[in-house]
Fold this protein.
Amino acid sequence: MAADRTTARYLAVEGPIGVGKTALARRLATEFGSRLLLEQVEENSFLRKFYEDPARHAFEAQIGFLFQRYRQQRELAQADPTVGTVADYLFAKDRIFASITLNPEQLQLYQEVCALLREPLPQPDLVIYLEARPEVLLRRLRKRDREFERGITHEYLERLTEAFRSYFHAYTEAPLLVVNCSDIDFVEHGSDLADLIKEIRASRLGVQHYIPLGSR
């Protein structure tokens, strides 16, 4: 595909677990000829333990993700700036998860660790926030059937979706495109994806809300 103004942009796709971030990021990277930056979820050796016993393993899992995401973002800062990037996460998501998984003492220690990571990190040119109802997320998680996700409950997803909603309600660090995808599958429906890509190309400063045509 010929280069366009979107090619060198940094797009971050974000949203709660099961909403379809990675699948959409892959398709956008292909569409825009961009490098693909994926969160290495299964490389966190503490994640499985966290889902088995959240209270016991939340802090170590969270710190593992923090350092992993930080290393990736540092590498991105050194990458060729003439090539666009599509990521399936926003670095700030780490704080969202920490706020609901850590107890007050752990959260304080986590924040102290974050304060030591002072190197400026790349900021996206556009954040695409995918939102969906908790019951939709749970159904999608059950469909993909990862063993370590089987213990995720509807209650946990409710807390997570509310944490994401609250965070992005006040988000001002980059232009934001909010996409309601409870009733849409960008992977299976090419027309929905094409419509979203048009919206991304036309994105402006500030916050934009996009409700796909196929949504009920």
Observations:
- The beta strands are 10-14, 35-37, 85-87, 126-131, 176-180, 207-210.
- The first strand starts at residue 10 and ends at 14.
- Residues 134 and 212 are 18 Å apart (CA to CA).
- The chain has one domain: 10-210.
